[in-house]
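User: My collaborator and I are trying to settle a disagreement about how two of our proteins should look. Neither of us wants to argue from intuition anymore, so we agreed to look at predicted structures for both before our next call. Could you fold the first one, then the second, and keep them clearly separated?

Assistant: That sounds like a sensible way to settle it. I'll keep them separate. The first protein:
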Amino acid sequence: MMAAAPAPEVLADHRGNPRASFDMPLDYEAARLNMAFHEAGHAVLALAGGVHVVTSEIIAWPTGKDGWSVIGNTAFEADSVNPWRFAAQCAAGEIASVQYLMAYGLWTPERAYACTADHDREQAIDVLADFGYRLGRDHVPEGGKSWGMARRKVGYLWREIRTVAHAMTEHDKLTGDEIAAMTSLTNAPLRGGS
């Protein structure tokens, strides 16, 4: 656990606005694992979709006398990636988080709601709109897809997501190459030349 909250830019969404936060009615370790599943969902589907993953991590810090907060971050380079694959990796975090609750016998409506990741959905909607694709928030738009499009892929890659999530709770931060090695997926080369 960090001694203090991370920098404001770490807590911001892709537009620079503060990400929404929810009270997760779980103990500290279960909440950290929930966030690790969220980030592992992003990282694994990103690798499966040809996205270069730089790092994926969970960040926790104390708040108040007995409180704490936990967030995650998956850094990637998605140039020249199919927009639907990019959107699927955005959706995978929320889906993997809820799947974790179900698989570990922790699901309640309140906990499932706390897994909501509007910042991921809004990023996917904005990125796809730049390419002329339509992603629905609560419906399937004409010629588009719905936010739940990654559910089947998360199920198919659940073993890999689970492996990465547990490794992340042990190490807090993993590189894309470490995630690729533990899942037998390929971390696409950087396209920007770095």
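The second protein, kept apart from the first:
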Amino acid sequence: MDFLAPPPPWAHAFADAGFTVLSSERLATPLSGVDTSVLTQGEWREIRFYGITTVGGVLFNALD
């Protein structure tokens, strides 16, 4: 999954609404580089099944 760098011009609308717009670098961060302790066994099963390897892949539900 590829993400735009920098975020598209309309991304400011989310920031203005109080959301954090993540950089493409952060979205591409390998799961091995973040704390994944909150993920359940079922979520890990799906992550492994679909070969998800990045934060962005999990956040944007690449499992479906």
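Some points you might bring to the call about the second protein. The chain has a mean pLDDT of 90. The helical segments are 12-16, 24-27, 41-50, 55-59.
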